[in-house]
UniProtKB/TrEMBL annotation:
Taxonomic lineage from the root: Bacteria, Pseudomonadati, Bacteroidota, Flavobacteriia, Flavobacteriales
InterPro entries per UniProt: DNA_repair_put, DUF4130
Protein name: DNA metabolism protein
Domain DUF4130: 83-251
Length: 258
């Protein structure tokens, strides 16, 4: 068995696939950043990300798959499901083993599992597009905190650029400790340290614009008034808006504090 250790990026994984074929490595297990003691007696192979090698593998996959098929591989990577990289490699091996398009071969475990993993990312990205709640800081930056199940910032970026092109904004993933910042021209990846209590009154007072509390209150009142108590369906509501997201939703924070 060989532990293939890469830097945790999609480009790094693509480079690893190239070198696995180049050096004919066998019995592969992917590991991010450093060796794991789970495979104590395994050989180790360290991958240095190479954009050219990554591009060759990506182009090879794109030539054999539809646009949606390649997106499923990336979606699987972002899903952070257990052993996602190993699943992606088995799928890629199947793709490269034939000249036929294998995307509809649902009898194959890898094809089916790739679809399921990519669906997790797609579902979570749709939720984040709906659940992002911006607050305005004193220096006129709109910021939002999210904690998605998987790493969705790369796939929701274009949505917010097109929707809020005339505003500076930051969306921060508190679970993965990084964010995306839009400066009216481009999007950059940033790493920040936020307060442990991101929704505390003290924290908001320190950084938020003086009118932000007023607009948040209007938002809460709006949701209160559009809510029809006689038609309340808690089960359906939780299905579409699971409670784990509530602490970052303006209209729900008040309920959590009760």
């Amino acid at each position: 068995m060989t532990q293939v250790i890469y830097d945790g990026t999609f480009e790094g994984w693509l480079t690893a696939v190239f070198e696995i074929y180049e050096f004919k490595l066998k019995d592969i297990v992917f590991t991010k950043q450093e060796p794991t003691t789970a495979f104590l007696f395994a050989a180790t192979y360290f991958v240095v990300t190479d954009p050219e090698k990554a591009k060759r593998v990506a182009d090879g996959l794109k030539n054999r798959l539809s646009k949606e098929g390649f997106k499923r591989i990336y979606g699987t990577f972002l899903s952070e499901t257990e052993q996602a990289e190993d699943l992606m490699f088995r799928f890629a091996s199947y793709v490269f083993s034939t000249t036929k398009n294998i995307e509809e071969d649902l009898s194959n475990n890898e094809v089916w599992d790739i679809r399921k993993a990519a669906r997790i990312t797609r579902r979570e990205s749709h939720r984040m597009k709906a659940f992002v709640r911006f607050k305005l800081t004193k220096d006129q930056l709109y910021y939002a905190i999210i904690e998605p199940e998987c790493d969705v910032l790369p796939v929701i970026e274009n949505h917010f650029v097109s929707r809020y092109a005339d505003q500076r904004w930051l969306i921060y993933d508190a679970k993965r400790k990084y964010g995306i910042y839009y400066d009216l021209e481009k999007v950059s990846t940033v790493e920040l340290q936020f307060s442990n209590d991101l929704n505390s009154t003290k924290f908001l007072a320190e950084i938020c614009d003086q009118e932000e509390a007023f607009f948040q209150n209007l938002w809460v009142q709006y949701f209160t008034h559009v809510n029809i108590e006689s038609r309340k369906n808690t089960r359906l509501h939780l299905q579409h808006m699971p409670k784990r997201y509530w602490k970052n939703l303006t209209e729900k924070v008040a309920n959590l504090k009760k």
